[in-house]
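Sharing in case it's useful to others searching the archive later.

Someone asked me privately for the predicted structure of Multifunctional CCA protein, so I'm posting the question and my answer publicly. Question first, with the sequence:
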Amino acid sequence: MKTYLVGGAVRDRLLGRTTQDNDWVVVGASPEGMVAKGFLPVGRDFPVFLHPQTKEEYALARTERKSGRGYHGFVFQTTPDVTLEEDLARRDLTINAMAQAADGTLVDPYKGQDDIRTRVLRHVSPAFGEDPVRILRLARFAARLPDFTVAAETAELMRRMVDEGEADHLVAERVWQELARGLMEERPSRMFEVLRDCGALARLLPEVERLWGVPQRADYHPEVDTGVHLMMVLDMSARLGASLPVRFACLCHDLGKGTTPADVLPRHIGHEQRSAHLLKQVCERLRVPNECRELADVVAREHGNIHRSEDLSAAATVRLLERLDAFRKPQRLPDILLACECDARGRLGFEERAYLPSEQLRQALQTAHAVDTAQLAAEALEKGLKGPAIAQVIQQARIAAVEPLRPPVATQDPSTP
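And my answer, the predicted structure tokens:
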């Protein structure tokens, strides 16, 4: 029985990057032998075990054979005679198909070191084409390693996989898992560029795919193309260290621009509500977690009004905060504002501009939130007021509190051009 460090841990060490987790492959062992040594079996589809002390994952060397469509269409063999080279051959990319022995010796049968030196993402073997998840994984690695290019033969293989319908068999949970991980990488735009290049984006997220080629007003969007703008927004969200809900909100904030009637372009009147409608479809299809869904919905509907909030009256400002549910969920406002900042700064020539609405709305919420609503409600009840009448009293008090913060000449209500 021999044990090897494999995959990402070996790759990251060669890249000089911090290793998050260690994965191990065991050659020449059986499931019974692993259990006898105290390892805890946890694998559902193939034998994976937790080390009795470190709790790191140890998998038996295995081969796989395609038996059906999609991610689960495989039969695995994990007999003790499976070699390390056979196990590495089933991996996706050459840079992930290296192993390190206990004495430090590097096993690199598929020239992963060469591809690290030349900064190339290359598939190990034609078996790559049997698993559509590998398209998503490669796209995610492109976002993690933005200075790597995709090998021409690998790009062609991915296009062929999409054309043959393999991507249509991806399950929603796995698509979301890889998408979420890719959004959190160093340059999220690279993931979408790779997916778009092979045709997978049109299959998985047609609402996003259709944004390329859609023009915007050049005076506000010097980059003009909506798809280009979206990629700049995503990369700004990474630059500003945004959370996953914020990055997902950035991804979906302008979906409605892809359905703007041609006769009104480059203006996008009402795109906010159309974005919220399309967002709902995306979230249902990919089973997006509620935290991401809810934040993205607010940002889609209100980002235009937030951008213009500097010029709003006190009354319009309070109504905007109410629609943001900021009085009930004040802890969510920073995320909403960060997504809007990414949108505002994700434009050509605006990358270093300060986003003034952020601090102004935070201050307005803090001031309005200081109003003693419990006292106001008690006084209103004594006067015989009920329900909506009490809410109106509270709203007016908040407006009065915010009034000194607003500009002398202000818009009475936000519009949605």
